[in-house]
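seq:
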Amino acid sequence: MLSWILDRDERRALVRYRAVAAGRASARDVGDRDELRARWASTGSRMDVRAVAAYLDRVVDRELGSTVHDEQWVAVLALLDGRAVQLDTGEGKTLVGALAATLEAWRGRQVHVATVNDYLAERDAAWMAPVLRAAGVSVAAVTSTSTAEARRAAYGADVVYGSLTQIGFDTLCDGLVEKHEDRVLGGRRDHLIVDEVDALLVDHARIPLVIAGPWGVGEDDLGARAAAAVATLEAGFDFEVDDARTAGWL
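struct:
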């Protein structure tokens, strides 16, 4: 059934992913972590994928006592190619996301892993931290209760877990501060992995992120000028309002 759903390029990619996943057990000359990281950052070749996969298999086994299955590596490789991946409950999507985040961090990128809520952000960060740190990758979590200092420190990590709502609010708040040193995210925002993408980008996306605060009024105030401009508009000519739908348009 899957072959009917995927187009030709996706089927070819799936064959390649499965070949890499199956071949990692026979990978030779795996090397040490720093060597692998340098090779991955510079080439990312298929042989390097097998080698780094074999290395990370050992890290996961040592740190979590778990086995990374072929289909999980297929999912990791698909994520690295920017594809959406569906994994059912119990198939290890948290580990898949952590491995993909590790390999993106090895490329020198900062990764944000967006979850549904604060609980999952803290849980997943703590759960995957042994693997990430053993791979030489720093990890942290941000929640709605984090202080500004804690957020600033967390966003300095290679991999940051947080709810999509919290990351979104922090991004909006950074756009409102006047001093650069008051920002919490910093300049590193290279890669985003979205957990529960259907919920976050479909269901939750219908709820806008709104930040409200005091707004001064004065002759040079942008809000006052906008209000004055709106006051000159004529209903029925410049704009129309649909009270039943709570909507309006120019």
